[in-house]
């Protein structure tokens, strides 16, 4: 039981020291960090949407290229 108590007190003390050091060493306030993080998330979402739309356009173009010979063959058979 003595070892567990020492371990628990060490863990609590380490958590408190770690929390205080984070608060003291953080270069910006909490509001600033939250707004910066929100902006980064919005930027990432915009990049993902842009990449997805570009990829969709590329895939649609490729699909049209693949369909074109088939459509020509079907058109040639009916003539």
* Major β-sheet annotation: none
What is the domain tally? 1
- Poorly predicted regions are none
The amount of beta strand, in percent, is under 5%
Mean pLDDT equals 86
Our count of helices gives 2
Shape: elongated
Q: Determine the fraction of residues in helical runs and give it as a percent range.
A: over 70%
- Terminal CA distance reads 92 Å
Give the SSE order as H and E letters.
Answer: HH
Structural class: mainly alpha
Radius of gyration: 30 Å
How many strand segments?
A: 0
Gist of the model:
The chain is built from 2 helices and no strands.
Structural commentary:
- The structure is a single chain.
- By secondary structure, the chain is mainly alpha-helical.
- The chain has one domain.
- It is built from two helices and no strands.
- It is elongated, with a radius of gyration of 30 Å.
- It starts with a helix and ends with a helix.
Pick out its properties:
mainly alpha, 79 residues, 2 helices, elongated
